[in-house]
Specification:
The protein has about 425 residues and is an alpha/beta fold. The protein folds into three domains: about 200 residues, Rossmann fold; about 170 residues, Rossmann fold (3-Layer(aba) Sandwich), CATH 3.40.50; about 45 residues, no CATH class. The protein has 17 helices and 15 strands. An eight-stranded mixed β-sheet has the order 10-11-9-12-13-8-14-15, sandwiched between helices. A seven-stranded parallel β-sheet has the order 3-4-2-5-6-1-7. It is globular, with a radius of gyration of 26 Å.
């Protein structure tokens, strides 16, 4: 079916792969040629297998040394990559040594084992990799032929890029480096220029933001209390599993405590929780022990949870790309999904940017126990503006200067006439 080693083909068949995604079709041949790559790809496009497939294809199973290092910014993402890699490895006839290194594990046992033998594929979080590669020098990363930095922008956001830099500095100059990221912020450019050799930039962003199975809905707060609106919204919805996103740990904590006090079947997950506790919570979420999950963006990047029917943006993320990532948690595997966002008047510019990305939102409001469609937030902008109308008068008041200068009345009257003509044309 696929032109890879038999065990890789068997693993892909076992996963139900019938064809490769766009990112896989584009990236795999280039990795096989040994190119350095910067791949900008949205969540849910199959990027993990776009590097795992060629890794196993190029792996020398007879060579018992470190050949591949993969860095992921969170324990959850590293664990998920490890699970995907094991699924492929388990179909191989030869033993392939893959090891996961994250916080919360037994450091002494890991060091002792590394002194005896080296893994062929290493997957770990930046801090842990730095500890084993730089501090203790027991993980021989300098032997690696491929280094992958997954979710590079999140690595930067979490403050781990320095750790990754330190690990990369120990590696061979002939190393093939692959950087995967949803966005390529300017602040990551020095790192890319330092380590990548004539990299090819591949941008494949057709992802969850344009998923036709997802309905995007806006609910205006009208400056009312968000918690009050959310609880009214939850009376209307009956989600299979809903993720409620907050922008900060403090906001998530407050919302979670409020929902828990009213006996909602709710879990809380954010980066402030101890790693072991997060792992247990994610396992419970995957087992569908909860109907609601209050979370920060740690869930939108790198934790794969199936069966999410609703995403609720209790607070819109500051970056539009994070809206895309959050939305990508639902509407997967041809299932329907719904994204509902609470917004204020000052969010209109932000919502215009969503519109420009092809994410078109319907406007809804809560009426009793129903969610009903209301006029679009843009309706007022589009209707006819008539001279003398309240809107026009407000516009003219805004234009009035705060200080009076010579010739002011004549200039002001000219501005009034110009504005009237402008709004006549809109009609």
């Amino acid at each position: 079916m696929f032109p890879y080693k038999p065990f890789i083909n068997t693993a892909l068949k076992d996963l139900g792969f019938t064809q490769l995604t766009d990112v896989q079709n584009t990236v795999i041949p280039k990795i096989m040629k040994g190119q350095d790559l910067i791949v900008q790809s949205a969540t849910g496009t199959g990027k993990t297998h776009s590097y795992l497939i060629p890794i196993f294809e190029k792996l020398d199973c007879d060579l018992k040394e470190c050949q591949v290092v993969i860095s992921a910014p969170t324990r959850e993402l590293a664990t998920q990559i490890f699970a995907f890699a094991k699924q492929i490895r388990d179909h191989a006839s030869q033993a392939i040594d893959i090891r996961l290194y994250t916080g919360g594990s037994n450091r002494n046992d890991e060091i002792d084992r590394l002194k005896k033998s080296q893994p062929q594929i290493v997957i770990g979080t930046p801090g842990k990799l730095k500890d084993l590669v730089v501090k203790t020098n027991v993980l021989k990363a300098y032997q690696a032929k491929i280094f992958i930095v997954d979710e590079a922008d999140m690595t930067l956001d979490e403050g781990f890029l320095t750790d990754v830099d330190m690990v990369a500095s120990t590696m061979s100059p002939k190393l093939q480096m692959l950087v995967f990221s949803a966005t390529i912020p300017e602040s990551i450019q020095p790192f890319l220029k330092k380590y990548l050799k004539n990299p090819e930039m591949i941008a494949l962003n057709a992802g969850p933001g344009v998923n036709q199975n997802v309905v995007h809905t806006l609910i205006k707060t009208r400056e009312r209390d968000r918690l009050f609106i959310l609880k009214n919204l939850l009376k209307v919805l009956n989600p299979y599993l809903a993720i409620i996103f907050c922008n900060t740990k403090e906001s998530a904590d407050k919302l979670y405590e409020s929902m828990k006090s009213e006996h909602y079947n709710v879990a809380l997950i954010h980066g402030g929780l101890e790693a072991r506790k997060r792992k247990l919570i994610v396992a419970d979420i995957r087992s569908l022990k909860y109907q609601y999950v209050v979370a920060t963006d740690i869930v939108s990047r790198g934790i794969d949870i199936h069966g999410i029917s609703h995403i609720i943006n209790y607070e819109l993320p500051e970056d539009v790309e994070f809206y895309v990532h959050r939305s990508g948690r639902t509407g997967r595997m041809d299932k329907d999904g719904m994204v509902l966002s609470l917004y204020d008047f000052e969010d209109n510019t932000y919502l215009d940017r969503l519109d420009s990305k092809g994410i078109h939102c319907q406007s809804m409001d809560i009426k009793g126990d129903l969610l009903v469609e209301v006029k679009s937030r843009n309706t007022r902008q589009n209707k006819e503006w008539k001279p003398g109308s309240a809107q026009l008068k407000a516009q003219l008041r805004i234009k009035k200067p705060t200080t009076v200068k010579p010739g002011y009345k004549k200039k002001y009257q000219a501005e009034v006439e110009a504005t009237k003509k402008q709004f006549k044309k809109r009609g």
